[in-house]
Amino acid sequence: xxxxxxxxxxxxxxxxxxxxxxxxxxxxxxxxxxxxxxxxxxxxxxxxxxxxxxxxxxxxxxxxxxxxxxxxxxxxxxxxxxxxxxxxxxxxxxxxxxxxxxxxxxxxxxxxxxxxxxxxxxxxxxxxxxxxxxxxxxxxxxxxxxxxxxxxxx
Length: 154
Hints:
Largest sheet: 5 strands, antiparallel
Helix content: under 10%
Distance between the termini: 25 Å
Shape: globular
Strand content: over 45%
CATH architecture of the largest domain: Sandwich
Number of helices: 0
CATH class of the largest domain: Mainly Beta
Number of domains: 2
């Protein structure tokens, strides 16, 4: 970590409000923030994260995960969801086929256990859409959902 004095830093808070906050840092140690994108579909919310730091590089492994929750905050583990991930290049036509359909596996990330995640290697620099869709497994109780996340690969 570097010591930073009298520096104005603009931090973008990604979340339900997507707000921008101006912060003045005086004689503090600065660490990079972890960004997450949150979307809601019906009674399901998804927290999306892409390592490293939502800044993937072409040809390198990136880990993507989705913390799915029911209204009220209860986690939906992968074992309760028929989840599918499709990755498309952008721009795309309505008939476009995904370039990748990686298999999701149950992973642990941050405070979440058993959530859907996978490793992805984006083939080239450009814009992509990640489309996560899901329906409940037998015995699970949530509405079918679909989330679309835009990703820029460098």
